[in-house]
Amino acid sequence: MKKAAKAPAKGATETTAKSSSKKGVLIGAVVLAVVIIVAAIAYNALAPNASSTIREEQTTSFDGASDAANQQDGSEDAQTVPAPDFTMQDAEGNDVSLSSLFGKPMVLNFWASTCGPCQREMPEFQAAFEEMGDEVRFTMVDIPGFNGESVQRAKQFVADNGYTFPVFFDVDGEASVPYGLSSIPRTYFLDAQGNVVASAAGMLDAQTLQQGLSMIR
User: Fold this and answer.
1) What span, in angstroms and rounded, lies between the C-alpha atoms of 66 and 82?
2) Three-state DSSP class for 104?
């Protein structure tokens, strides 16, 4: 006559269950980490192709600023779009208003060194700056806080790559709302009076950058 198999001890069962539970949590954490890494890689790989075309600004306004101006001067067909003013800091930590830089056509670019597409378009801006920095003002505005960005990290990135265009820092985030900076890079092309002539979302290649520049020179 066969003896009945002994049931596992209660303590052993609980230990096995806890071990399985911990193993499941560990596997879940690893899977989540892999998903995040893959998503980040995919973003950096695909973002350059997301939107890199020039969009000409006409009666489009920023927070109704242009519409209000058109109503006040009675010219409903006016096509100027004043660039929203904001205060940023230069490399020495001095406050600088955007409007204080008007007087020349301007390329206004929002970027961060922690943004892959931003990094990849920087050589094109450097080349354009070296070619026409005397006739066009390049205003490269870093966004501290974007994906871990910091002023020091941005300065180091600029120095390491030998970029010489003027760099500013939107430390108080004043430009985020009026310029719709839900994602970067984003570039605006302004005329000498500070009106937005065209804009582009996403990484710019040399040809697209030249297209924007041709609209304000």
Assistant:
1) 7
2) coil
